[in-house]
Amino acid sequence: MLGPVILAASRSDRMRRLVSAAPxxxxxxxxxxxxxxxxxxxxxxxxxxxxxxxxxxxxxxEDITTPEQATAARDAYLELIGRLGPLELGTRAEMSVKLSxxxxxxxxxxxxxxxxxxxxxxxxxxxxxxxxLDAEDHTTLDSMFAIHDDLRxxxxxxxxxxxxxxxxxxxxxxxxxxNGSRVRLVKGAYKEPAEVAHQDKHEIDKAYxxxxxxxxxxxxxxxxxxxxxRLISITQELARAAGRKPDEYxxxxxxxxxxxxHLRLAAEGHRMRVYTAYGTDWYGYFMRRLxxxxxxxxxxxRSMVSKG
Length: 308
Description:
alpha/beta; eight-stranded parallel β-barrel; 8 strands; 52% helix; 13% strand
């Protein structure tokens, strides 16, 4: 039950300072976040796409406290898109964005986030690719879905993320599957109360499969965000049952986790997209990766001991 503890620590300034100061931290962070700048990330993009993989790029950072920071986040994505354009990768390299980075939690945050994310979606469309809106904690989702609906009026390829552990998600999935959205399904990586989310891993897995079936049988484009071998196998079974071709859904996994599986799925002809984060404000993203899987935490602790 370390996951909730780690997620709480992800919001602690004291823990941020302790983890950031640990000599081994950078070595371990590099496993999940392969660069801090666009210049550092471009060779990673070249390597992954050269191996038949696709990407969704995330500029890390969530704790936005001023409109100026939100504008800077927007500009960081615009810089990335500007550098991706000449590579002519199209949808092989898309973007993932957290609306909290665009000012969603600030006063007037819904309008501010929409105003900041729209130019990013427009710029992505101009180079032949798209944007997926990441899901955050449950209090932000009504705003996220409203922004998603607004953007899709002009950019119907705009995607969104839904989280299997939330009770509301089965209803959200039915709506999104019916209107042809691009939908990434994940288990969920935020600390949510029992009033709104499943707490038992087995119940979360069962909800994931129910929602996955809804997406596969619907009219949208499912994006399966999971490293779980059993869920990957179930995905393939449900896709066959729904008559979906390999290019009518895709797998998505995190950079630094199960890299051999990325290559295996791509070699078998599946669309395999790697969620690749970069940037300097890595702490929250890194802590959620530790919380998601005990093996990630063990890897970090072993590294601390061996380098201590």
